[in-house]
Amino acid sequence: MGMFKVLVSEILEETDHIKSFKLVRADGRGFDPYPAGAHIDIVGPTQVVRQYSLCSPPYDLDAYVVAVKREPESRGGSAALHDRLEVGSELEISAPRNLMQVAGSADRHVLVAAGIGVTPMISMAYQLQREGKPFELHYFARSRELAAFTDLLEERCGFGEKVRFHFGIPRDGQPAVLREILGGLTGASHVYTCGPEGFMDRVLSLAGPVLGEDNVHIEHFQAGEPADTSGDAAFEVELDSGEVFEIPADRSIVEVLQENGVPVDTSCKEGICGTCVMGVLEGEPEHRDNCLSASEKKANDQIATCVSRARSARLMLELF
């Protein structure tokens, strides 16, 4: 995975616990084009690698903007970015990767965010606005004070009434609001959501039966509940080059491949970033990731090799 150096050109206090960082290339060049909804890896001051969604306009190639929420349990990730970075600090980042993109054809795009999950939605809204496509951005937060980018969304983006805030709504009150938001959708509509797992589950449970799961796009920024590994067994992986490796019950595919010199890129190692995804040519995967969509998992032609395993005795894989 190629990494390159950037400089922090601006830091803004979005809330008491969220900072945004504007990044420019250290070599003075512009960034390459990327689709809205992308995220990047950032190597922090403590060498911890974390993924952050880009929330800047995807057509602005002069700078990237990411927002970082200070997590109370942080052990060198978000806390180090908050405490150690200053204007002029140098970081290493990856090129953008996309797990959630704007659908090419839809009669209506509904973006539903909670908390820090608003970050990829801002980039997607910029793209939809530029292309003149119908969209709404709904932003849930516990209070206005805890919501990032409110001034940007209200005034500077030019989104107008397409942005709607939902502050202070308790969890048991969210389904009623979500039903109202999702009312009138058709099978050609698409919904995009990012936020805490429980919130995204509620959006999916309400929108999925109407649209189908393929039309509900989810961006995970944390791993799901750990899988039950008590029944794990060894299996074989054959690469399209003909090499065969045994994957023990207590090792991941990517660990075994990397130890044997196979160049598989990794980042999160938790099944959320999609870096280590490989193609499946034969065999049946057991999906344990949060990066492949429901339709991708159903197709069984890809596997996140850092966490997923096999239901069959052997998988034949190809490097992407």
From TrEMBL:
Coiled coil: none
Pfam families the UniProt entry points to: Fer2
Record keywords: 2Fe-2S, Flavoprotein, Iron, Iron-sulfur, Metal-binding, Oxidoreductase
Iron recorded as keyword: yes
SUPFAM superfamilies from the UniProt entry: 2Fe-2S ferredoxin-like, Ferredoxin reductase-like, C-terminal NADP-linked domain, Riboflavin synthase domain-like
Residue ranges of every copy of the 2Fe-2S ferredoxin-type domain listed in the record: 235-320
Domain FAD-binding FR-type: 1-103
Cofactor names: FAD
The name this protein goes by in its record: PDR/VanB family oxidoreductase
The organism of origin for this protein: Arthrobacter ginkgonis
Higher taxonomy: Bacteria, Bacillati, Actinomycetota, Actinomycetes, Micrococcales
